[in-house]
Amino acid sequence: MKIVSVIGVRPQFIKCASLSRELRIHHREILVHTGQHYDYLMNKVFFDELDIPSPDYNLEVGSSSHGLQTGEMLKRIEEVLLIEKPDLVLVYGDTNSTLAGALAATKMHIKVAHVEAGLRSHDRTMPEEINRILTDHCSDLLFCPTQTATTTLADEGINRGVYLTGDVMVDAILFAKNRSENSNILEILGLTSKEYLMVTIHRASNTDTKANLDSLVNALIQLKQPVVFPLHPRTEKQLKHFGLFDILSSRVKLIKPLGYLEFTKLLGHSQKVLTDSGGVQKEAYLLQVPCVTLRDNTEWQETVQAGWNVLVGTNEEMIVNAAHNFQPVSIPKTLFPEGACRNICDILN
Ligand code: UD1
Ligand code: UDP
């Protein structure tokens, strides 16, 4: 089969690295990079360290408003699909690149496969929630990471083409875990295993509202443990814009975004992680690092129900309390079994 895979942002490069490896055994894959993420540390570093094949097309769409960015992607993906005439378009997750790929294909009557289908935060103010819903509703093959996701799709009337495959991020973390141990990032940063907190923040609702970013910064500067925070470019820009960068950097180690192997090492050795990332919530569970989620909701409910993840939103007091005191009672049973990439390929073969 000829498959066009559409990717564009950091977590999609990581997911695609694992799935591409399997996919290319039996299929011809054409890789289309929308260019949504483009800085070296948000983009090429992942291709280099995870051996992702170079994209066949880079659409170089870059940053802009949702409408302009998604519209440009739609137009440029359509041009590629007209040239390549694939049997299937494969999209990952819930970003503007995901929606543009799915929409371009379905309008041309090309089958769409959605990896990470059926996830919901039930918060329609998140751009990602809109992207997920629309992508699922125009997909022909829906690869669900969890049973909850398949149930959600059934509740929305989507029953055909739904498969419970497991989560491709499990394959990614299994690939990275041992390799990442060679990294000397802890020594470079002067950190001691299990004695520091890791932070990542990049959600629009947290970075673009001054009150929320204020509250997050106020909480982080009160923490007792050493704190390391690899900054997403959006967050760095907004911290500077709201005049919060200097106060935060006086207390917290603010560093550039990390490659996947360094990030996995730093996360795995942290005492706890405070994050608003979707992927990091899951990775924390997989690496057995307690997770404090800086959001009011999550599309990974299982990690909360299992007691491994706690939702604290942007409430200063709750963040500080969870950072100091949250402790899962026991390691939960396997929430995300291995083998998603193989399962997806078996369905496609
Ligand atoms: C996007 C996704 C989000 C995902 C995240 C992964 C959407 C709507 N959002 O959010 O779901 O969790 O990627 O990291 O698709 N920027 C740079 N350099 C880059 C990329 C971005 O400086 O290489 C800056 C630009 O100022 C840009 C801002 O970051 O405006 C936001 O980038 P964008 O891709 O629009 O959204 P993310 O916040 O990265
Ligand atoms: N990640 C990384 N370097 C960083 C921050 C995150 O490699 O500095 C990885 C992380 O391990 C996870 C993915 O990027 O696999 C998550 O991306 P992000 O938080 O940007 O997006 P989300 O998962 O929320 O869509």
Automatic annotation (TrEMBL):
Q: Per its UniProt record, what SUPFAM superfamilies does this chain match? A: UDP-Glycosyltransferase/glycogen phosphorylase
GO terms (molecular function) for this protein are: UDP-N-acetylglucosamine 2-epimerase activity
Which CDD domains does the entry mention? GTB_UDP-GlcNAc_2-Epimerase
EC identifiers of the protein? 5.1.3.14
Q: Which residues cross the membrane?
A: none
Keyword annotations from UniProtKB, A to Z: Isomerase
Q: Sorted alphabetically, which Pfam families does this protein's record hold?
A: Epimerase_2
Residue ranges of every copy of the UDP-N-acetylglucosamine 2-epimerase domain listed in the record: 28-327
- Spell out the NCBIfam families in the cross-references: wecB (TIGR00236)
Family per similarity comment: Belongs to the UDP-N-acetylglucosamine 2-epimerase family.
Q: What is this protein called?
A: UDP-N-acetylglucosamine 2-epimerase (Non-hydrolyzing)
Q: Which organism is it from?
A: Dehalogenimonas formicexedens
Its gene name is: wecB
